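STRUCTURE:
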C-alpha cells in the first residue's frame, strides 16, 4: 500500500470510501463476464467457424477472417 492510500483515508474519507467500493466491485466481478463473447472466425475457403485466429484446422491455411466483432468492442 502506498502512503497516499493512508493520506486519502485521513484527509478525505468520502473519496476513500468511493475508491474502496470501486476496488471491492472490481475484485468481486467475474473476469469472464467482463470479457464478453469470444470473437468468431470463418474460413474463406471451407466456411469452418471457430475461435482460431489465423490458420484453419481443416484447410491448414491462413484463411480465417473475423465473422463478427466481439460484444465488448461494439
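SEQUENCE:
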Amino acid at each position: 500500500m502506498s502512503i497516499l492510500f493512508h493520506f486519502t483515508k485521513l484527509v478525505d474519507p468520502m473519496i476513500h470510501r468511493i475508491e474502496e467500493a470501486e476496488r471491492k466491485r472490481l475484485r468481486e466481478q467475474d473476469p469472464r463476464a467482463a470479457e464478453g463473447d469470444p470473437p468468431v472466425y470463418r474460413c474463406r475457403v471451407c466456411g469452418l467457424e471457430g475461435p482460431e485466429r489465423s490458420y484453419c484446422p481443416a484447410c491448414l491455411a491462413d484463411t480465417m477472417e473475423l465473422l463478427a466483432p466481439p460484444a465488448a468492442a461494439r
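REMARK: The radius of gyration is 22 Å.
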